[in-house]
Design goal:
Structural class: mainly alpha
Pfam families: Ank_2
Radius of gyration: 35 Å
ANK repeats: 752-784
Protein name: Ankyrin repeat domain-containing protein
Shape: globular
InterPro entries: Ankyrin_rpt, Ankyrin_rpt-contain_sf, NF-kappa-B_inhibitor
Largest sheet: 2 strands, antiparallel
Strand content: under 5%
Strand order of the largest sheet: 1-2
Organism: Pseudomonas aestuarii
Distance between the termini: 58 Å
Helix content: 55-70%
Number of helices: 42
Length: 906
C-alpha cells in the first residue's frame, strides 16, 4: 500500500504517543482507514480527541483552538489527498515526503503563530527547542538529547539539586513511597520514554519540594534593584551569555553580553529581568506533568517514526546520514524561526509585511518546493501546486529506493540538494511553458504535425487531458503518447486516456465498433506489466464497458472491486468517483438500504464528491441524485445495444396513466379492478431509490399535485376547479380503499423508514388515519429519526389525528433518536391539546429526559432562555415548511406543565 495517511490515522498516532487507553486493532484500523459507519466513526473520533485533550489537561478554550487548527489542517490535507497520485511509491517514501513538504513546515508555522505574543511553553528554555531531540556530546561522542531528559534537567535545574538528591528527598518525604523514582529518572535520561502512570505518581498535585534554583521577582523592589537581583542570580548559577542564549529568547549576537556588562538602557534591562523571571519561575505540579506529557508524546512519536523510516538506527544516533529525522527537525526549526523573526522585524508594519519578510528570507530553491505549503503569497494555490509536485515525485521514484534528502545539515551535504532542486524547478517551468505554447499552436495548426515536435511525455499527457482542445487533438495527443511511452506505466496511461474518450464522452457519435475497440483496449491494459498500478482505473472503465453492454450486475461487481482496489494507493479523485458509480448502480432500480449503501456515501464524502455543495446533502438526497446520475450520465449503451428503461419511472408512469382517468370519472368498479389486476405490484416496494410502495407513492404524488395546483394562477383553472377537486377527492378515497384491500402496503416503509400512516398523520387526514389503523397500520413503527405517527401528528398540530392514535391506542414511550418522547415533542412545538392528553394518559412522561438530559419542561425553558437555540430550531423547521412556536406559546406550555406536573416520577 502507498496512501496518504488519513487525518484519523494521525490522531491515533498522537493518541498512542500520549499513552491513552488503546482500542482493539480491528477498530483502530477501521477508524484509521475511514471504513467504519459514519455514526461509529463520529463517536470514536470524539472519544479520541477528548482523550488527547484530557491527557494534555487542556482547558476549554485551548480545546476550541485545537479543533479550529485541526479543521484548518484537515481541509488543506484533504485537498492533497484528493489530488495526489502515489503510483508505485512505497509507504515510507509517501510518509517521508509528506513530513518534509507538509507536516513539518505547517506545524512549525502554526506553533510559531501560537508563540508570537507569549510562548505556550513559558518557563522552558527559550533559545532551544526542548521538545525535539537535540544534538549534544555524551562522553565525547555525538548523541541526541531526548525531550523527556531535557524536561527532567529543566526541573532539576529549578530545584537546584542533583537527580540523586531529588529522588532521595522524595523517597524520604513519602516514607519510601517513591523508591523507584531514581531508577525511572535514570532511564528517562538514557532515552526511555516515560510511562504515564509514573508521571502521575511522581508528580502528583501533592508534590512538595523547595525550588532553590528558581528566580522570583520581588515587586516591592525598584527596577534597578530587580535587575541587580537578576544579575546576582545569573552569577550564582554561573550562567554565561552563551548559556543564557539557550535559556531565554534573547538570541541576537552581543545582546546578552551588553546586558551582563551593564551597557544597555532600562527597557532592555526590564526585558531581560522579565525573560529571566519567566524562565526560572517555580512550576506547579500541573505544569511539570504537562511538560513531561508533551515530551513523552514527541519522544514516543519520534522513536516509532524512526523505526518506520530508518529501521535499525538507534534513537540517539546524531549522524544525519543515518538518522534522517534530523532533517525534519531542521525544517521545523527553520520555518519556526523565520516566522518569529518576520514578526519581530515587521510587527509594527502589519501581517502583510511579516509575510513578505518571511517569504523573502526563504531559500529560493525551496520556496516553491519544501516550503510551498506555507508560502503566504500562494495561500490559494499552494495545495494544488504541492499535489502536482508530490504526484510528479511519486511517479518517478522507485519503490524501495533510499529516501531522498530534504535538506543538508552542512555545506558539503547541502550543495547537491540545492543543485537538484534548482534543476527540478527549471525542468518544471520549461515543461509548463511548453504546454501552454503547444496548446496555443494546436488551436490553429495540424494536431499530428504539431505534436510530432514535442518529445516530452509529461507535456503531451497534459495536452491529452485538456478537453477544451477538441476530440481530434485529444486523439492525436493519445497517439503521440503511445509513440513516446518508454515504460509500461506510460503505455497503460495512454490506453486509459483512449478508454476515456470512448466511455466518458457523448456517445451519440460513437463508431459502430466502439464495443470491440473498448474490449481490445481493456485487454491491452490488463496484459500490461504496470496493470497493478492502474488496476482501480482500469476496473472502473471495465465496469462502464459492462454497463454499456447492459450487464448491470457485472458492472456493479467491478465497481465494488475498483473501490476496494483504490484503497491500496492514492489515485487522486478516482476513489470518490468510483464510490459515486457504486452507489448509482445500486440504487438505479432499487430502494436505498442505509445499512448496505452507507459505505458508498461515506466514500463519496471522503473522496471529495460533495466539496462543491453549500451544505453536505444527506444520504437520501445523495441517493436520489445518484439514481438520476445513473440514467442521465453513467449508463450509455453502445450502438446497437437496446437501451434499458428505468423500471421505477416506467412503473409510476404506467400506474398514473391507468389511474388518472379513473380518478376523474370516479369509476369505482374500475379502481377495484385495477387493484385486483396489480396484486403482484402491491406485495413489495417499487423498484425506485425512495423505496416507495404503491400506496406511499400515490400519497406523495397526490400531495405534490395538490401543492402544485395551489401555486397556479386562478385563471389557469377557470372552469376546471370543481373537476380537479373532485378528482383529488376520488384519489384520496382510493388511498383508503387501497389500504383496506391491500393492508400489507400499510407497513412497507420507504428509505426513510416512513409509513403511509405517518404521512397521513402529518397531513392532518383523520379519516384516513382511522381507516389505516383499522386496516392494520402499525402505529409503533419509527422512521430513520425515531419518529412515530404520533410524533408526526403532534408536530403538525393535527389534534384529531392525535386523538385517533391515542384512542387506538399506541405506545407512549417511543422516543426519537435524540431521546424525545411524544411529550417532549408536544412541549417544544407548543401543542397544548397533546400536552394535556399525554399528561392524563402517561404522567410519567413529564419526568423523562431526552439525550441532552432535559425533561419536557426543561426543554421548553431552555428554548425560552436561549434565543439562539430557538432561532436555530425555527430555521430548521422552516426548511421543511413548518413554523416554530412563538415565545408566548412556549410560555403558555411552561405554565401548563408546571400546573399539571406530577409530584412524583414513575
Amino acid at each position: 500500500m502507498s496512501t496518504l495517511p488519513l487525518t484519523e490515522a494521525i490522531l491515533l498516532e498522537i493518541h498512542q504517543s500520549l499513552g491513552c487507553p488503546s482500542y482493539p486493532t480491528t477498530k483502530k484500523n477501521k477508524f484509521a482507514t475511514g471504513q467504519d459507519s459514519l455514526a461509529a466513526h463520529k463517536t470514536m473520533g470524539e472519544e479520541i480527541l477528548n482523550a488527547i485533550f484530557d491527557a494534555l489537561d487542556m482547558d476549554p478554550r485551548a480545546r476550541v483552538d485545537a479543533i479550529d487548527n485541526l479543521t484548518e489542517f484537515w481541509n488543506a490535507y484533504k485537498y492533497l489527498e484528493l489530488n495526489t497520485w502515489t503510483f508505485a511509491a512505497d509507504q515510507q517514501q509517501v510518509v517521508w515526503m509528506l513530513l518534509g513538504y507538509f507536516y513539518m513546515p505547517g506545524l512549525a508555522r502554526r506553533a510559531a503563530f501560537w508563540s508570537l505574543e507569549d510562548t505556550l511553553d513559558m518557563g522552558m528554555p527559550g533559545g532551544r527547542f526542548w521538545y525535539l531531540p537535540e544534538p549534544r556530546e555524551v562522553d565525547g561522542k555525538p548523541s541526541l538529547y531526548p525531550p523527556a531528559a531535557q524536561v527532567l534537567d529543566w526541573l532539576l535545574d529549578l530545584l537546584g539539586m542533583t537527580l540523586e538528591e531529588f529522588a532521595d528527598q522524595r523517597s524520604e518525604s513519602t516514607d519510601g513511597g517513591h523508591d523507584g523514582l531514581r531508577r525511572s529518572l535514570y532511564n528517562w535520561r538514557k532515552g526511555t520514554t516515560p510511562d504515564l502512570s509514573t508521571i502521575d505518581k511522581y508528580f502528583a498535585n501533592e508534590l512538595l519540594v523547595d525550588f532553590k534554583g528558581a528566580f522570583a521577582l520581588d515587586s516591592s523592589r525598584s527596577p534597578a534593584e530587580q535587575c541587580a537581583d537578576a544579575l546576582a542570580f545569573v552569577t550564582r548559577k554561573q550562567l554565561t551569555a552563551d548559556q543564557l542564549r539557550l535559556e531565554i529568547p534573547m538570541t541576537q549576537p552581543g545582546r546578552l553580553e551588553a546586558i551582563l556588562d551593564g551597557s544597555v538602557d532600562d527597557d532592555e534591562k526590564a526585558a531581560f529581568v522579565a525573560y529571566l523571571a519567566r524562565r526560572y519561575a517555580i512550576p506547579s505540579p500541573h505544569t511539570i506533568r504537562q511538560r513531561l506529557l508533551f515530551a513523552r508524546m514527541v519522544q514516543d512519536g519520534y522513536t516509532r517514526l524512526l523505526k518506520f523510516l530508518c529501521p535499525g538506527v538507534d534513537s540517539r544516533c546524531a549522524d544525519a546520514q543515518q538518522n534522517k529525522l534530523l532533517q525534519l527537525f531542521a525544517i521545523y526549526k527553520f520555518a519556526y524561526n523565520m516566522t518569529i523573526d518576520g514578526w519581530r522585524n515587521c510587527r509594527d508594519q502589519g501581517e502583510a509585511a511579516e509575510n513578505a519578510w518571511f517569504e523573502e528570507h526563504l531559500p529560493p530553491w525551496d520556496a516553491r518546493g519544501l516550503y510551498l505549503s506555507i508560502l503566504p503569497s500562494q495561500r490559494e494555490t499552494a495545495n494544488s501546486a504541492l499535489a502536482e509536485l508530490l504526484t510528479r515525485h511519486f511517479a518517478e521514484v522507485q519503490p524501495g529506493a533510499a529516501l531522498e534528502d530534504h535538506v543538508g545539515l552542512g555545506a558539503e551535504s547541502e550543495a547537491p540538494i540545492i543543485q537538484r532542486n534548482i534543476e527540478r524547478m527549471k525542468a518544471t517551468a520549461e515543461e509548463f511553458k511548453a504546454e501552454l505554447e503547444l496548446a496555443e499552436r494546436l488551436k490553429t495548426a495540424s494536431p499530428w504535425r504539431t505534436l510530432q515536435g514535442e518529445y516530452r511525455y509529461r507535456v503531451v499527457s497534459q495536452i491529452a487531458q485538456r478537453r477544451n482542445l477538441g476530440p481530434k487533438v485529444r486523439q492525436a495527443a493519445i497517439q503521440r503518447l503511445r509513440e513516446l511511452a518508454s515504460s509500461p506505466s506510460e503505455t497503460i496511461q495512454a490506453v486509459l486516456f483512449e478508454l476515456d474518450t470512448f466511455l466518458n464522452n457523448d456517445r451519440s457519435n460513437s463508431p459502430k465498433d466502439a464495443r470491440d475497440s473498448v474490449q481490445a483496449l481493456l485487454e491491452e491494459a490488463e496484459s500490461c506489466s504496470a496493470y497493478k498500478l492502474w488496476k482501480a482505473a482500469t476496473l472502473q472503465y471495465k465496469a462502464k464497458h459492462l454497463l454499456a453492454c447492459n450487464d448491470f450486475v457485472g458492472a456493479g461487481r467491478l465497481f465494488r472491486e475498483a473501490l476496494e482496489t483504490g484503497l491500496e494507493r492514492n489515485c487522486g479523485p478516482l476513489h470518490g468517483e468510483v464510490a459515486r458509480d457504486c452507489l448509482a448502480v445500486e440504487v438505479a432500480n432499487q430502494k436505498l438500504i442505509l445499512n448496505n449503501h452507507e459505505k458508498y456515501y461515506r466514500e463519496m464524502l471522503a473522496g471529495g464528491m460533495m466539496t462543491e455543495c453549500e451544505e453536505i446533502p444527506s444520504i437520501e438526497e445523495t441517493a436520489r441524485w445518484a439514481s438520476e446520475y445513473f440514467w442521465d450520465t453513467l449508463y450509455k449503451p453502445y450502438p446497437g445495444v437496446p437501451p434499458q428503461k428505468r423500471r421505477a419511472s416506467a412503473a409510476g408512469r404506467k400506474m398514473l396513466e391507468e389511474l388518472m382517468p379513473l380518478f376523474f370519472t370516479g369509476d369505482q368498479d374500475g379502481l377495484q379492478a385495477w387493484i385486483k389486476a396489480n396484486r403482484q405490484l402491491l406485495k413489495s416496494n417499487l423498484p425506485d431509490v425512495d423505496g416507495n410502495s404503491v400506496l406511499m407513492l400515490l400519497i406523495k404524488m397526490r400531495t405534490s399535485f395538490a401543492q402544485g395546483l395551489h401555486k397556479l394562477p386562478a385563471a389557469m383553472l377557470e372552469g376546471e376547479q370543481q373537476s380537479v377537486e373532485a378528482m383529488l377527492e376520488q384519489w384520496r378515497q382510493f388511498l383508503g380503499l387501497l389500504a383496506q384491500e391491500a393492508p400489507k402496503q400499510l407497513n412497507i416503509t420507504d428509505f426513510k423508514s416512513q409509513t403511509p400512516l405517518m404521512l397521513m398523520a402529518e397531513s392532518v387526514d383523520t379519516e384516513l388515519v382511522r381507516i389505516m389503523l383499522q386496516a392494520g397500520a402499525d402505529p409503533e413503527k419509527q422512521d430513520w429519526q425515531g419518529m412515530t405517527a404520533l410524533h408526526s401528528a403532534i408536530k403538525s398540530h393535527a389534534n384529531s389525528c392525535v386523538d385517533a392514535l391515542l384512542d387506538h391506542p399506541c405506545n407512549l414511550d417511543n422516543e426519537t433518536v435524540d431521546g424525545q418522547s411524544p411529550l417532549h415533542t408536544a412541549a417544544w412545538c407548543a401543542n397544548k391539546h397533546a400536552v394535556k392528553r399525554l399528561l392524563q394518559l402517561a404522567p410519567h412522561l413529564a419526568w423523562k429526559r431526552n439525550a441532552q438530559g432535559m425533561t419536557p419542561l426543561e426543554r421548553v425553558e431552555y428554548l425560552i432562555e436561549e434565543p439562539e437555540a430557538l432561532e436555530a430550531l425555527a430555521r430548521d423547521l422552516n426548511k421543511n415548511g413548518r413554523q416554530c412556536a412563538s415565545m408566548q406559546e412556549l410560555l403558555s406550555i411552561v405554565s401548563l406543565l408546571e400546573e399539571d406536573l406530577p409530584e412524583v416520577s414513575n
